[in-house]
Amino acid sequence: MLANILLLVIDVAASFLTLMLLARFFMQWQRISFRNQLGQFVVSTTDWIVRPLRRFIPGLFGLDMASLLPAWVVQVLLVMFELSLRGAAFSG
Length: 92
Hints:
This protein has helices spanning 2-29, 37-53, 65-86. By secondary structure, the chain is mostly helical. It is globular.
């Protein structure tokens, strides 16, 4: 019971962060202005993780990989956490 509540809270937080990172990626890909309220919210929510990664992760064909890669990493970590919480073995 407690594990399910913990999993729900972590799933909501990780999904929200992933949604914001993917929204930033999509808004940059479609060249949508960040001057509106939604754009400013997305930037202020994800700037703490995207800005340091831009030093190491270059863009690819005009796509912002510094926004896409952390979204993928967050989801991979979420799945690994869920599997370990449910007792799955990670052996080869």
